[in-house]
Amino acid sequence: MSSPFVIAAIRDVAPTLSEPYPQELRRLIDSLYDYSKFKISLSQNEEIARYHICAILAIERLKPQFNFQDPVLDKAPVPTKMVAQLLNIFQNHFQVKSSKPTPVSTPKKKIDDKKLKVPTPSPSPSKRKPGRPPGSPNKLTLRQKLEKASGDKSTSSSNSTPQNSPKKQIISDEFLQKTPKKNTQSQPNTPTKSILKFNGNKTGPTSNYSSPTKYMKLLSASEITALCNKFQLDTDVTQNIIETFKQYCRKVSNEWILLCGLIINCYFVIHHKVINEQLGSKTSTIKAMFSLQNGGLMLEQVNTSVNIAHNLIAYNKWFKQLKIKHGVSLESQSIASTTGNMISPEVQFHSAQKQKAYHDWLQKIKTELIQKSLDSSSNTSANTFL
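Above: the chain sequence. Below: its structure as tokens.
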């Protein structure tokens, strides 16, 4: 039976592949994982993506046999740029190991023993004449070498870089005409940074995989629903989470922070009795969300997402109705608690002097209110008598 980590890795990198997964694929991932664990050492941040890297390699290798689709890179627990780097490392290592030619025994003509015992006399060595040996290509001159090198550079640059627009070309030509040439020798082009995409057959950049820019693509409703179902949320709650996510997704740096916070807040409201009775229930819920999310968040970020999402939905109608439905009091969610009021439960007085001053001030306010109510009632009765 395959490890649950293998199943989770396949589910992330091949979301369209239906279960049960082929046995050959699972065995290949296990073997690649064991081999890479023994041969390739990774850092602590990169180690969590080892199963996903092995799954991508296995899917790419078995693609012709099972007609798999291209694996997805943005579902790994690390950024896609790191995934591309790790794929190149793994593929280069596997190619180096497998590209060593095995010695093949070629048939040789049997040599007679008598010829070995009686060597034939070699002719007297003659002085070699100047020049290249017969059959060798003619030696290129220095000018021909320079022309060939410049031609290779121009062809490679024309193939790799797009042509300039006509407007930019005119500006560059005018600039070159006005600028005096200080040095006619051409300077080497500085390499530009580019994100390499993994290729199953070659180590160079290709376009077989999805671009890393898709990491910022909004989550679909099906993905949000699948994550809500793992926490056993009702359909109406899931629908409210999807609508709220679409409303506030542009206001956070990472969409997964908003989604994790929304689901955890709803889970805390629905199961508030169990969470209040059992110690450590909130921590276990946050850790469960940390293991299920695919946004590359750290545990501290998942913990922070609870407060971020709560500040956004604290006064939404559907969230208040959810609290009323499950018997959660709304006293701590009054509007005064968000205006910096000193009476909110978040502020506690620790010294006896401050507590006494607070109670005296509160008693004074109550006395004044009672006195005003009595005065108003007496004035009303006097007017009625007259």
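The mean pLDDT is 71.
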